[in-house]
Design goal:
The chain has 153 residues and is an alpha/beta fold. It has a single domain, classed as Rossmann fold (3-Layer(aba) Sandwich), CATH 3.40.50.2300. Helices cover 44% and strands 14% of the residues. It has six helices and four strands; from the N terminus they run E-H-E-H-H-E-H-E-H-H. Strands 2-1-3-4 form a four-stranded parallel β-sheet. Helix 1 (14-28) crosses helix 6 and helix 2 (53-61) packs across helix 6. The structure holds 4-nitrophenyl phosphate (4NP). 4-nitrophenyl phosphate binds at residues 8-14, 45, 124, 126. The site of 4-nitrophenyl phosphate has 10 residues, from loops.
Length: 153
């Protein structure tokens, strides 16, 4: 069993898409029972909220329902509950690294670096438009495919 947590800033745009895409791919591959999959935000401003409407709509266009997700803020015990905590951008990784207790179980890494070996951010689409959300989705789909393959290795 591998526990994986996707983390962005607000947990309403990028990490819900990363979570939703990874879960959908794991389900399609018949291996969802081998993973605990969740997402969180560095900040708690949107805690309890559904993903951003634009993220819900983008996922829906690709046949994935993320409307049941609710935002939450990362907490210290997440570092012992998860094996892998992936920040969607470098600011997220900095925040996570600073927060990670020295003896924690979780490995913290940059999402696209861990998945694809490409040390790039997933750009924040919050102040953008639907094409920015589609770009996030495309990155998540590519990264998730590679990540799943790697974790099933
Ligand atoms: P996310 O996007 O980190 O991908 O969920 C954002 C969501 C909310 C805010 C910033 C980014 N915000 O400032 O409230």
């Amino acid at each position: 069993m591998t526990a994986i947590l996707f983390v962005c800033l607000g947990n309403i745009c990028r990490s819900p898409l990363a979570e939703g895409v990874f879960r959908a791919q794991a389900e399609a591959a018949g291996v969802a029972n081998r993973f605990i999959i969740d997402s969180a935000g560095c900040g708690g401003w949107h805690a309890g909220e559904q993903p951003d409407t634009r993220a819900i709509q983008t996922a829906a266009r690709h046949g994935i329902d993320i409307s049941g997700q609710r935002a939450r803020q990362i907490q210290t015990d997440d570092f012992d509950r998860f094996d892998l905590i992936l920040g969607l951008d470098r600011d997220n990784v900095r925040h996570l690294t600073a927060m990670r207790p020295d003896t924690a179980r979780a490995k913290v890494a940059l999402y696209l670096d861990e998945a694809l070996g490409v040390a790039k951010n997933v750009p924040d689409p919050y102040y953008g438009g639907s094409s920015d959300f589609e770009a996030v989705y495309a990155l998540c789909e590519k990264a998730s495919t590679a990540l799943l393959k790697q974790l099933l290795g």
